[in-house]
């Protein structure tokens, strides 16, 4: 079976179609969409694409199937969307209709395609770009709430039917308020759910990329009924330029500020952070009684040195002497010497020439060379968190050994009796970037821009495993917050 007809015989990563061809295909897609199906080749049947539910939040399941086929007919089922940069993303799978004349990716594996195995979300996460289309950024970015995509069925080089599926990246009623210039010098954005509230509060922290944390995650959490403060803590005006000597008091002040908001209910909030933001989240939870639940996504149970800033204009790395990532009461938070600081000049130069920065070995080597006393001195006192801790790790993490680093935290919690029921979930073969919005393409998540226009960071993982972990991580975090911040079961 060939690739989707609308993509040409070279498949979705082949040469771009000529404008005239695209115009013809657009007309064919409209005509097919009006009827839901078109005349099919003899012996294939009359396929009907069945989708559901439409216009649901993107983290919720979406069913895609085809009925009306001749049993045993071979067809290609494909999906396509266009992102905010005008880039077309496409996935596909070749299937054989079952005895009832159906194709259902939730029950059948494609014989070939952009993914393998039985996977109801395969067409969503395995989308890819055409040849010559830049994968920078590697994520699908669409600012609008609605994310429309076309689902199609091909056979014999012809498109037999198409249908439209719209996913909601967030509830259109979510409101966003910048908080820059508020008391305490906070920088970030407040995401508020639809309705008057008040709502449970969540503090969202990004990682070593700096700046404002993922707006897609902030909006999606708000869509589930949480007032979310997406907090920048370096890399923005008025904040430290790099992740070095960041005062914990700044984050602790953000916890107090969020709780004092009239839109926020309860007397405690949740905190969720990814990577260095996970390390940050555990530290804030350990030092604030107003934090009632902590989620660390591929974070660390020990504190590490700061990460130097880069100067893109000179295309060089600024490499100051090793310093702490965090301070408290004017003193360094103890850290384990090494990690990023062990990344040498030769590796930095290679990264500036285009090779993704591979940090895993430096962190792994530091742990291997450290004695128990050094690790204990740098360990975050997670046993002080007055609430449950959820640790989410990935075995394919190429940034640092998140499973091993979270084991350090889990061991401390276990030794303290684990009074709040902490959990450590480990996702096999997933990469470092499992903290994003679920059910979006993960094809290019093996490396992410670290310094825009300068260097990329190897993040690792198999795309399908990373996609599954991203969905599972978001669901687990949401379940924890629902249980701890909505004790009376108040709906979102």
From TrEMBL:
InterPro entries registered for this protein in UniProt? AB_hydrolase_fold, Acyl-CoA_thioEstase_long-chain, BAAT_C, Thio_Ohase/aa_AcTrfase, Thio_Ohase/BAAT_N
All copies of the BAAT/Acyl-CoA thioester hydrolase C-terminal domain together span 246-303, 376-485
Determine the domain of life of the protein's source: Bacteria
Q: Which Pfam families match?
A: BAAT_C, Bile_Hydr_Trans
Domain called Acyl-CoA thioester hydrolase/bile acid-CoA amino acid N-acetyltransferase: residue spans: 59-179
- MF GO annotations: fatty acyl-CoA hydrolase activity; transferase activity
Q: Which SUPFAM superfamilies match?
A: alpha/beta-Hydrolases
Q: Which UniProt keywords apply?
A: Hydrolase, Transferase
What are the recorded Gene Ontology BP terms? acyl-CoA metabolic process; fatty acid metabolic process
Q: Where is the active site?
A: 275 (charge relay system), 397 (charge relay system), 432 (charge relay system)
The record, for PANTHER family, names:
ACYL-COENZYME A THIOESTERASE 1-LIKE, ACYL-COENZYME A THIOESTERASE-RELATED
Q: Which family does it belong to?
A: Belongs to the C/M/P thioester hydrolase family.
Q: What is this protein called?
A: Acyl-CoA thioester hydrolase/bile acid acetyltransferase-like protein
Q: Which organism is it from?
A: Allonocardiopsis opalescens
